[in-house]
Amino acid sequence: MVSEHARTRDGRELHLERHGAGSPVVVFESGAGASRNMWGTVVPAVSGRTTAVVYDRSGLGRSPADPEPRTLARLAGDLRDVLDHLGDGPFVLVGHDWGGPIVRTVAAADPGRITGLLLVDQDDEGSDHYFMPGARRRMRLAALTDPAAARLGLLRFSTGRLAAKLPEPAATAFREEDGTLESTRVQWAELAGMVDDLRRLRDDPPKLPDVPVTIVSGRRSGGLGGGGRASLNTAHRARAEALPRGRHIVAEKSGYLVPFTEPGLLVREILRILDVTR
Questions:
Q1: pTM beyond 0.90
Q2: Compositional bias (Gly residues) at which positions (predicted)?
Q3: What would the pLDDT profile of 148-172 be if each residue is shown by its tens digit?
């Protein structure tokens, strides 16, 4: 493993780790407020076949904070800077949760370097539940209560349970770097404009390149509620079916934390995409 820094176009540094060797390069984009450590079980298996890269967005893990608003456009711009640092590609992009719209935005803007996508229980503008008044109320409440819970150390319990599913050194790094007050603040800074960004995606959908695209949905509600989960999975399935090389998979044992609960499923699908693209 090699640790290094990618420099953004405005001079910030993003911490990244490069594992293994080979092409295409698989680049992982974490969910909202999550560091590179969440991929700790997936990366070792993938890096046995090719180069796997994980990185920390600004303010998360080992990357310094960004004073600017953490809009989808800014997050996608940072990922493009990471890809520029890594070279010409080709790249397979893997995005979890809010990382899904980030990698889709980049794939649409820079299609020549992208050879495959894996979207893991991504936030999807095709699901109406994001735009319901109840969802907005829940988000506003969580934006207040989550930092309070982090300040009191309550999030450390859930962080510890998730860390127990990871191998070392990712487990220790996850305990130290995730579920903190700062990471929680960054999470909600990233999600502050989520609904507006999703509405923009709905109005002007990013056109993905003609590459293999797999969308993985969790079966369990994972805090979405039954209606929210059904709406999201329907949107995932419809998106996959609309793509020329789309594929939809349901993670039967998972909510939205598929990288922790069914990492083997993700590894198998990444390796399948690598085989197809090669």
A1: yes
A2: 220-229
A3: 777 777 788 889 999 999 999 999 9
- The partner residues of 248 in beta bridges, in order of sequence, read 215
The three state secondary structure string of the chain is: CEEEEEECCCCCEEEEEEECCCCCEEEEECCCCCCHHHHCCHHHHHHCCCCEEEECCCCCCCCCCCCCCCCHHHHHHHHHHHHHHHCCCCEEEEEECCHHHHHHHHHHHCHHHEEEEEEECCCCCCCHHHHCHHHHHHHHHHHHHHHHHHHCCCHHHHHHHHHCCCCCCHHHHHHHHCCCHHHHHHHHHHHCCHHHHHHHHHHCCCCCCCCCEEEEEECCCCCCHHHHHHHHHHHHHHHHHHCCCEEEEEECCCCCCHHHHCHHHHHHHHHHHHHHHC
Return the closest-CA partner of residue 265 out of 101, 42, 51, 36.
42
**β-pair partners for 249:** 216
pLDDT single digits (tens) 11-70: 999 999 999 999 999 999 999 999 999 999 999 999 999 999 999 999 999 999 999 999
CATH fit for domain 2-277, picks 3.40.50.1820, 3.40.50.1370, 3.30.1360.70, 3.30.1490.190: 3.40.50.1820
